[in-house]
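user: Kindly work through both lines:
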Amino acid sequence: MSMKSLRCLIAGLAASSVMAATALSVSTPAFASGVEDTRQLVVTALDYNSTGWTYLQVPSAADVPLFYERGFDDSTWQTGQSGFGTATGCSFNNPTNVKTPWAVNTDILVRHWFHIPRDAQQVRIQGTVDNDAQVYLNGHLVQTAKSGHCKTGAIDVVVPAGYLDCCNLLAIRGHDYGGSTYLNVRVTYVKPTQS
């Protein structure tokens, strides 16, 4: 089994566990009887402070071609937990939010596989970066986030449906310009339900 296939399998199993737990914990309002009960369930496929990220810190001018492609070999990269950053700086630069160090005045390249079901809709990537980021899904640039300093929620994009697969690669290049660093994201989707 290839490393990519193994990661997809692990991501799929983790996603299934999260889906099951979320489905059990979400309540929805009752609807009048006789009316079709169509609900939407927001599911987290990859959460803040998640483990299993591969990452590489590089000088800001370093060219790492195609690191965001699905077939890129990241087997020599380190593995860590998000958020990435410094222990001091903005309000979220603290041990609760920063799990893996990211040096000031460098770029960080991060990659993570996640699984979604075929009927997933409105796949959304959200997060915070200090300073800027390029966000890719399955090799497609989906957002360039320019947050300046500590702008919460600067990463926020709904991925075009044509970019999605069941097993997906999220890749981000975070840029820092001094002071402090931070990067933490999550991926959610909407799953239609009927009862």
